[in-house]
Amino acid sequence: MAQAVEVKAGNSRLIRAQLSRRFLAAIAAGAIAVTFALFIATPLHGLVGFVLVAAVLYVVAQTVISNVVEGRRAAMNRLVTSVVVVCACAAVLPLVAVLGFTVIKGSAVLDLSFLTHTMRGVAEQDPYGGIYHAIIGTLEQVGLATLLAVPFGLLVAIYLVEYSTGRLGRIVSFFVDVMTGLPSIVAGLFIFALWILALGQSFSGFAGSLALAILMLPTVVRSAEEMLKIVPDSLREGSYALGIPKWVTVVRIVLPTALAGIVTGVMLAIARVTGETAPLLLTVFGNPALNFNPFSGAQASLPLFVFGEAGLPNETAINRAWAAALVLILIVLVLNIMARVIARFAGVRS
Amino acid sequence: MAKSIQMKNVDIYYGKFHAVQDVNLSVPPRAVTAFIGPSGCGKSTVLRTMNRMHEVIPGARVEGRVELDGEDIYRPAVDPVEVRRAVGMVFQRPNPFPTMSIRDNVVAGLKLQGVRNKSHLEEVTERSLRGANLWNEVKDRLGRPGGSLSGGQQQRLCIARAIAVQPEILLMDEPCSALDPISTLAIEELMGELKKDYTIVIVTHNMQQAARVSDQTGFFNLKAAGQPGRLIELDNTEKIFSNPTEKATEDYISGRFG
After folding, report:
1. Number of domains in chain A
2. pTM of the entire predicted model
């Protein structure tokens, strides 16, 4: 061990013994070897278990050896660093797994015909059929929900940050907080009870948009509020000092300064509701055929399509669900990229 | 252009806190008036009542009369927006609008008040930037963001922005405290030129600056922390710095204070 450990301690008190990279690699190799031995000797099996056992062995061995060679503080440093890295990997892993699995499963069926055909007259075991109707439905429903929620949410945020001084502001703020935790099925039920049962309207894309807008609203209000708050007061004062009225200051100085952050918040809200299924079940209902008109009659939507097809006991239907899920992810991805591009070019110039 | 300001028995409060007590003063037109005094003595507060800017802070209020050429700017019928059009302000930290180019920053006041005439805006841009001694440095990059300038240039940009709306009076709240000596010199020289056309009131922590740029100087002080600030004495700058009437002024100026 004496050669592998680079003992730099000489005359200087500032230099301590350190484990070399090569030695750490040797510990890792040892940990993997021991794990191998364990897996052969005992009934342990499986890749995930192997990685976990090896990782735990490595961290323990590294900490013990470091404690002996480098001292207690360095050993603690290595232990905590290792734990943090493992946690970070564990957090990313499910995300990568979900994405990877969806891409692999979904790309098998996904082609141009899948994107340009509907499910009208297609039986569950038929290999053809597509999601054109569901894409149109989702785009229309989310688009309408955005048109409803963004202006409204923005105005609420402006009121909270720029105008409210007293109790009303606190009450509004409290209810926005409460709405943030609203289960999405409750939003759907509410619109179902109000719009469809009480007001006697039919299932429609617009009914779904209303439910989605309820879910978007608190996200939009909160993110816009945070962004407006970080606009420095010195800019507002600078504007007032030029004899510019308050509302012009808000519209022409404060909003543009906060625009990049507001756009990001709006896009996140859109991305969040695009995948909502529960509120659409009771309001949009689902439809195998194309319905371009979001204001009349049941419509399809991608999350509903995935939900419906995935529940059928048939391989072709389940494959269609995977492909639709992949398209849904791609739509959200495109929205996110657009948000970043817009945020980069809008607002503050540097 | 260039009006005078009179303050008569002015008391200023932030909520229940009595910030400034019984100020009586007169600011003559086309001259520089400097306010000096220790931190927290209310000199910035007094400055901000001159264009009703202190109202931006919730709970702030004023008693007494603040007159612009004899007209009380605190009558209920007076629109604070109109007051601020007549009384411009430059702040401690340069605050150019970050979303705007240099050109748009200069004419922001006019544009956002609805002026559209392009050639007029062009003309105002050049005149204001020349007036702020910034034209030669930025004339080739008027389209660049205002935030791309150095601190001293940004402050002169803010002065250009303030004079672009042609106010009667220019208030300056420690305009050089965030700047280096060279930029400070540039702004002090600028004040000397601006006072031909404008009434200038400046708050400064720098007594040498007050002595260099001002025609009359007011000394503010407070008895103790938590007590309201008061105007101790206002007189010709020369007299304040050579032979002040009040002992407190002399102590402060000679550094024997507190």
Report:
1. 2
2. 0.83
